[in-house]
Design a protein that fits this description.
Layout: E1 9-18, E2 23-25, H1 26-30, H2 37-44, E3 48-50, H3 58-73, E4 82-86, H4 97-105, E5 111-115, H5 121-134, E6 141-148, H6 158-161, E7 166-176, E8 181-189, E9 197-198, H7 210-214, E10 221-222, H8 224-246, E11 255-258, H9 263-272, H10 284-287, H11 294-304, E12 313-320, E13 324-331
Parallel strand pairs: 4-5, 4-6, 11-12
Antiparallel strand pairs: 1-7, 2-3, 6-7, 8-13, 9-10, 12-13
Helix pairs in contact: 3-4, 8-9
The protein binds oxa(dethia)-CoA.
């Protein structure tokens, strides 16, 4: 999906992010499961993550992140005409978290919905928003990636509980005709690999009961090693694909923002497309893996700290359960 030659495209006019206050450190995790700060740092690169309290829901983080995005874009809530929320931890099954946020933020003239594409949901959301803007159907679209993974974590499983964190990131997309905006996008999924990363119960196939809860079947199960290998290959391929579609060399990139799951995955992906680590945005040491929120939180940080400047070429790429993966190339 390349937009070369198509004049009207979407650009990201504002960003925002939010995390809970509570920080959970590796040494605290040492007291919960049989692990060590050294193992977590060496195998994943994670030092701390943010965890929401029992009173918090995903939409609470979304509202904060989205308000910041609207503020930075100087856009009023009633001017938003579409809201996409990427999450696997909605507030509740019905209504969508999108509709809950719409009501709380006063997005009176919008339509809202959730998408489930795991860690790739923000990339999916940006791509959907870009196509609605290019067809002229919408003019101001909020895309949010948000998770409270702490709610679907088995705190007795050391192979997963040390990895995840809670957070939300948001972006506002608007039309533009100049050089700025989304240059090319790529999305893919492969449902044949779903068993490597999944939640066994809690849906229509296996509704929750005492047994599913006792067996932690509401929580994420992951074959870390297999996910690792697929993530590196898929993110590398997707990242290269959007560059090729746009006729741009990886050496022209100013910033590369990969999904923040594991520092070794990030390094291997960057090496695959030959991007030096000083052009790679890394914040997973502080946030852990926040799934759909990881790319938009990093994007917001990069924008607010001046790491991303107008005219820069930035590429975002993600991979997650499904499997799903994709990439977006943006002239900032
Ligand atoms: O966001 C969606 C995508 N998700 C990802 O991209 C995550 C991908 N996977 C990974 O990041 C890595 O596979 C992990 C960080 C999850 C694991 O790293 P690994 O190098 O693949 O370790 P491993 O699973 O091969 O485990 C090595 C050893 C095992 O012990 P044995 O069998 O060698 O005796 C594990 O039992 O490390 C053990 N281990 C731990 N030890 C201490 C697993 N978890 C822990 C732990 N603390 N927390």
């Amino acid at each position: 999906m390349s937009e070369q030659g198509n004049r009207l495209r979407a650009y990201i006019s504002g960003t925002g992010s939010a995390v809970p206050e509570r920080v959970l450190t590796n040494s605290e995790l040492e007291r919960i499961v049989d692990t060590s700060d050294e193992w977590i740092m060496e195998r994943s690169g994670i030092k701390t993550r943010y965890i929401g309290g029992s009173e918090m829901a995903t939409s609470d983080l979304c509202v904060k992140a989205a308000a910041r995005a609207l503020e930075s874009a100087r856009v009023a809530p009633e001017d938003v005409d579409m809201l996409i929320v990427g999450t696997v931890t909605p507030d509740q099954p019905l209504p969508s978290t999108g509709c809950i946020i719409q009501e709380r933020m006063g997005l009176k003239n919008a339509f809202a919905f959730d998408i489930a594409a795991a860690c790739t949901a923000f990339i999916y959301g940006i791509t959907i928003a870009d196509s609605f803007i290019r067809t002229g159907m919408c003019r101001k679209i909020l895309v949010i990636g948000a998770e409270m993974l702490s709610r679907i974590t088995n705190w007795e499983d050391r192979t997963t509980c040390v990895l995840f964190g809670d957070g939300a990131g948001a972006a506002l997309l608007e039309p533009c005709e100049g050089p700025r905006g989304i240059v090319s996008t790529f999305l893919r999924s492969d449902g044949s690999l779903q068993d490597y990363l999944y939640i066994p119960a809690g849906g229509s196939r296996r509704p929750h009961n005492a047994e599913t809860l006792r067996k932690h079947m509401h929580a994420i199960r992951m074959s870390g090693n297999s996910v690792f290998k697929h993530a590196v290959r898929a993110m590398g391929d997707a990242a290269q694909r959007v560059l090729d579609d746009a006729g741009i060399a990886s050496s022209d990139l100013d910033l590369f923002i990969p999904h923040q799951a594991n520092l070794r995955i990030i390094k291997a992906t960057a090496a695959r497309i030959k991007v030096p680590m000083d052009k790679v945005y890394v914040n997973l040491d502080r946030y852990g893996n926040t799934s759909a929120a990881s790319v938009p939180i990093a994007l917001d940080e990069a924008s607010r700290t001046g790491r991303l400047k107008e005219g820069n070429l930035v590429e975002m790429v993600a991979f997650g359960g499904g499997f799903t993966w994709g990439a977006v190339l943006v002239r900032w």
